[in-house]
Amino acid sequence: MNRANYSIEEDSFGKFLKVKMEVSLYPLTSIMKSTYWFTDRCFLYMQWADQAHETLYVMFRGKEELEEQSLHAIAGEFLNSVLDQTIRAQVEEETKIVKSVIVKRAFSEALSKQEQQFVANM
Questions:
Q1: 8 A C-beta contact, residue 78 and residue 33
Q2: Residue 10 and residue 16 in contact, taking contact as beta carbons nearer than 8 Å
Q3: Residue 109 in contact with residue 94, Cβ under 8 Å?
Q4: Which ranges constitute the DSSP H helices of the chain?
Q5: pLDDT tens figures, 18-28
Q6: What does pTM read for this prediction?
Q7: C-alpha to C-alpha distance for 108 and 52, rounded to whole angstroms
Q8: Nearest-10 crossing angle of helices 68-108, 28-36
Q9: Measuring CA to CA, which residue among 37, 36, 42, 34 is closest to residue 17?
Q10: pLDDT one-digit tens code per residue, 46-101
Q11: What CA–CA distance (Å, rounded) separates 6 from 21?
Q12: 1: which strand partners?
C-alpha cells in the first residue's frame, strides 16, 4: 500500500499539487516542519482527509503559475523533506539521554553548586 502519494489537479485558479500523507508513518510535526520550507514559493493549505485524522492532504499552489514538471519536483522535494524531518525526530529521541549527559558533564565543573543541582534535576 502506498502511504504517501500525490496528484496534480486543476481548478479555476490553475494547477496545484495535492499530497496525501498518512500521519501514522509521517508524524504531523514532521509534515508541518517540511511545509514551512515551501512557503517562499508556494501557498499551502492543509486539510484532514478523514474524521479520524489519520490521513492529511497538503495542497501546494505556486505563488506564480507553476508548470506540471515544477509541481512534480516540489512533490519529490516535499516527500524527501518529510522523510528527513521524520528521521531527525527519531534520532533526536534516540539520542536525547546521551546529549543530556554530555551537556551536564560539559558544564558541571564550571557551575556553582546551585547550578549543578539545577542541571542534575534536568
A1: no
A2: yes
A3: no
A4: 28-36, 68-108, 113-120
A5: 999 999 999 99
A6: 0.79
A7: 47
A8: 110
A9: 42
A10: 999 999 999 999 999 999 999 999 999 999 999 999 999 999 999 999 998 888 87
A11: 9
A12: none
Are 40 and 8 in contact by the 8 Å Cβ rule? The answer is: no
- Give the type of residue at 94: E
Q: Is 71 exposed, middle or buried (0-12, 13-18, 19+ CB in 10 A)?
A: buried
Q: Which amino acid is at 98?
A: V
Half-sphere exposure of 64 (CA within 13 A, CB side): 4
Reduced to 3 DSSP states, what percent helix, strand and coil does the chain have, rounded to the nearest 5? 50, 25, 25
Q: Amino acid identity, residue 21?
A: M
Least Cα distance to 74 among 7, 1, 24 occurs for 7
DSSP helix/strand/coil, 1: coil
* 3-class SS of residue 30: helix
Half-sphere exposure of residue 119: CA atoms within 13 angstroms, side-chain side: 18
Give the 3-state secondary structure of residue 41.
coil
